[in-house]
Amino acid sequence: MIEASPLFGKILIANRGEIALRVLRACKELGIATVAIHSTADEDAMHVRLADESVCVGPPQARDSYLNIPQILAACEITGADAVHPGYGFLSENARFAEILEAHNVAFIGPSAEHIRIMGDKIEAKRTAEKLGIPVVPGSDGGVSNEITARKVAAEIGYPVLIKAAAGGGGRGMKVARTPDEMPEALATARAEARSSFGDDAVYIEKYLGNPRHIEVQVMGDGQGGSVHLGERDCSLQRRHQKVWEEAPSPIIDGEARARIGGIVADAIATLGYSGAGTVEFLYENGEFYFIEMNTRLQVEHPVTEAITGIDLVIEQIRVAAGHKLSITQQDVAFDGHAIECRINAEDPRTFAASPGRISNYHPPGGLGVRVDSAVYQGYRIPPYYDSLIGKLIVHGRSRQECMMRLRRALDEFVIDGIKTTIPLFRDLVIDEDIAAGQYDIHWLEKRLSADAASDDRTG
Fold first, then answer.
1. Strands 33-39, 53-58: pairing kind
2. Burial of 367 from C-beta contacts in 10 A (0-12 / 13-18 / 19+)
3. Domain with 145 in it: what CATH number?
4. How many domains does the chain have?
5. Which tens digits make up the pLDDT trace of 233-274?
6. 334 with 445, same domain?
7. Which residues of the chain are modeled with pLDDT < 50?
8. Which entry of 117, 233, 258, 297 is annotated as an active-site residue?
9. Among candidate residues 1, 5, 3, 14, the one with its CA nearest the CA of residue 297
10. How far apart are CA 215 and CA 235, in angstroms?
11. Who contacts 259 (Cβ-Cβ below 8 Å, separation ≥6)?
């Protein structure tokens, strides 16, 4: 329910692209004034054009603009913004940023710095999850600092094992050791990647599951004892550990399993005193869930949850950050139909090389059950400095079959000329027999792309 009066006077949106526009729309529906920050490369961005005020915070490179905390804080002071929504990426899971805002009496629309810090450390997150009764993947009890310890842990849980950066994410600092002979190189490489990517070479070890699905549960807490789960999303179609296609509900999770794991995580975040949106991610194999991490922010794929629940997650985030209790209880959450999201990237659909440039023609699909979250427009020039995600196509239907047919139609309507995009990839996936049957795991897409590349080499 939309509040009759503003929850905050003015919200600064510390992000760019489609997520900045998504947050801006929620603010407008709540009657809250908005401030867009932008780099010099984003002067013509859609969120800048639509916001009530805008402030340039630096040159194109993210470290000098969207990650520039002093400049963002100055923008809050200049405009009188009393809250910041970080979106996802950039500073959304930066505990220090949340603390600095609090010290300057600016609300951070997200969880507490303490919870960001706990869940940002993969080792501490696993320990916390285990204490809260969430099932975890068998693995090391804390970090692994040397080869002797690594071999001992691997022998106890059994090969193959996965070595993961404690401060990691996005697939960096992650290596598989399938045999004892592979352990030295895998451990050294994982630690080196962790140090390079995160400034911290701490790693831990988990049992490597052969053919799991990636299932995540959307949760929301108000820090006042209220918590709900909003069902699961299946994010198993991935390339290099990056999600490509997400759907809700999962084709392989039944109502009983949904209620069981959803209840566990909702109870856990209530016990934790967690406030805001969060996603608890699992690997799922042979009927069992294994915790891998918790993201303490809004997810890229949140629209599929909104589609099947009718609940605006961003509005709920803003309400909770303003000190309100959740506007919903678990009994209010009802699941309706099926939704799929395709991440549209400015990339070559075969090589996945980035494809920045000017969009010469743009025509998004429409019709019943079709939503496009994008901040691009005809004539917009996609800068080369940021993530290649330029939009998300979200389709909802009464059943998965109807949803797939609607997605097929929407993809055929979608026109983005002037650059290369991943739309052709999704046109192939939506007619694939395995996808239609819901029979895929986290390795499926990588195998498919490798086979396609091999075929191209033979015919080229």
1. parallel
2. exposed
3. 3.30.1490.20
4. 3
5. 999 999 988 999 999 999 999 999 999 999 999 999 999 999
6. yes
7. 1-5
8. 297
9. 14
10. 6
11. none
β-strand partners of 294: 280
Q: Tell me, yes or no, whether 2 lies in a domain.
A: no
Q: What is the pLDDT of residue 198?
A: 86
For the sheet with 227-239, list strands across it: 288-295, 275-285, 213-222, 227-239, 242-248, 338-345, 389-397, 370-374
Q: What is the pLDDT of residue 452?
A: 84
Nearest Cα to 58, choosing from 80, 43, 79, 76? 43
127 catalytic residue (yes or no): no
The domain containing residue 16 runs over which residues? 10-109
C-alpha–C-alpha distance, residues 349 and 420, integer Å: 7
Residue 137 sits at φ, ψ, to 5 deg, of: -75, 135
- Residue in 132, 400, 65 with CA at minimum distance from that of residue 274: 132
pLDDT of residue 1: 37
Contact of 7 with 319, CB cutoff 8 Å:
yes
Paired tokens of 342: 């395709």
Q: Are residues 250 and 344 in the same domain?
A: yes
Joined together, the tokens standing for residue 420 give 């290369």
**pTM for this structure?**
0.90
Residues 227, 267: contact at Cβ < 8 Å?
Answer: yes
For the stretch 174-226, pLDDT in tens is 999 999 999 999 999 999 999 988 888 899 999 999 899 999 999 999 999 99
Backbone angles phi, psi at 10, to 5 degrees: -155, 130
Which residues, in sequence order, are bridge partners of residue 108? 84
Helix (H, G, I), strand (E, B) or coil at 232: strand
pLDDT of residue 5: 40
CA distances from 368 to 26, 108, 139, 274, 399 (A): 21, 35, 46, 36, 14
CA end-to-end distance (rounded Å), the chain: 57
Q: For position 169, what pLDDT does the model report?
A: 66
Q: Are residues 191 and 224 in the same domain?
A: no
What CATH number does residue 237 fall under? 3.30.470.20
Helix ranges (DSSP H) in 66-160: 69-79, 95-103, 113-120, 122-131, 147-157
> Which H or E run includes 295?
strand 288-295
Last residue of a domain, one of 186, 207, 228: 207
Distance CA(262)–CA(259), nearest Å, equals 5
Domain identity same for 186 and 228: no
